[in-house]
Amino acid sequence: LLPLGAFMAAFIIGMVVWLSRRRLSPLGELQIAVRKREFIVHYQPIVELRTGNCIGAEALVRWKRPNGSLVRPDLFIPLAEESGLITAITDQVIALVVFDLNRLLVADRSIHIAINLSATDVSTARVLPVIEKALQHTGIEPQQIWLEATERGFVDINSARSTVVRARELGHAVVIDDFGTGYSSLSYLEGLPLDALKIDKSFIDTISTNSATSSVTPHIIGMAKTLKLKIVAEGVETQAQADYLVEHDVEYGQGWLFARPMPAAEFIAYCRQAKAP
Ligand code: C2E
Ligand code: CA
Ligand code: CA
Ligand code: CA
């Protein structure tokens, strides 16, 4: 009897260990991460190119695994978009921005935070009441929250337009992100009440190189000016690029030349120091 009992016990323990170590699918892991709220936000300063003043930041999500490692968003955002988990992640990012920066944003009205919206958020507008609710009782002004949307959100142009219109009625600025990387016609831009356009890093990379695409960048800048949009240049890494952008009247920039994405506490310190006269 004893050997049989020992065998059974060993078998059960073995099963339990096997079950607990069994690798979950990537989707299963992401579902657990959403349930356990394993996300954090880093903030990358956006500066006024002429002065170097910090005018705000872009909120960039990271998945903090239980072992402490950070997973880059491009490794899980596509799966989150495909599976619909992205809306829950967007909501967590909104809550984190409010939690991390409430005091800074109330103390300094000139600071804004840009939040990335998914295509679903743009096509359904479901995110707008979520933001409204998150800002209640905080003292943060809706004007301090900018919303970044990529062209993928504009496939259904009519619902996208109503989201943009509603967002601006609420006081948010709407920024078209990764501008120039989509393949859709740009004519839809004319019918949208946008505030700013973010030039994708791939175009900034071509500045002061002899690459064939370098001639596109001035056209993008020209188009933004025709549409009377503010411009934010993304991925500015060199002083030569910053100089070029200032020469071409691009107001704002973001990139490693100024600062990398950083935790909230560091961003708050960066902002104070970058603003000091
Ligand atoms: P994005 O919106 O185009 O964000 C800019 C990306 O460029 C960030 O990568 C940023 O760290 C990186 N970057 C900025 N300046 C430089 C530079 O000078 N050099 C280089 N090499 N890179 C620079 P990150 O944080 O890995 O984010 C990647 C993408 O993930 C974002 O691209 C965005 O599409 C997506 N993402 C990030 N956070 C969120 C979020 O909360 N929601 C959604 N839906 N998407 C997000
Ligand atoms: Ca963005
Ligand atoms: Ca971008
Ligand atoms: Ca980009």
Automatic annotation (TrEMBL):
One function term, GO molecular function aspect: cyclic-guanylate-specific phosphodiesterase activity
Which keywords are on file for this protein? c-di-GMP, Cell membrane, Hydrolase, Membrane, Transmembrane, Transmembrane helix
Classification from the root reads: Bacteria, Pseudomonadati, Pseudomonadota, Alphaproteobacteria, Hyphomicrobiales
The record's subcellular locations are: Cell membrane
A single Gene Ontology CC annotation of this entry is: plasma membrane
**Where in the full protein does the shown chain start and end, and how long is the full protein?**
240 to 516 of 517
Q: What is its EC number?
A: 3.1.4.52
Its main subcellular localisation, reduced to a broad class, is membrane
Write down the top EC class of this protein.
hydrolase
Reaction(s) the record says it catalyses: 3',3'-c-di-GMP + H2O = 5'-phosphoguanylyl(3'->5')guanosine + H(+)
Q: Which residues cross the membrane?
A: 1-19
* Membrane topology summary: Multi-pass membrane protein
Q: Which domain of life is it from?
A: Bacteria
EAL domain location: 23-275
Name of this chain's protein: cyclic-guanylate-specific phosphodiesterase
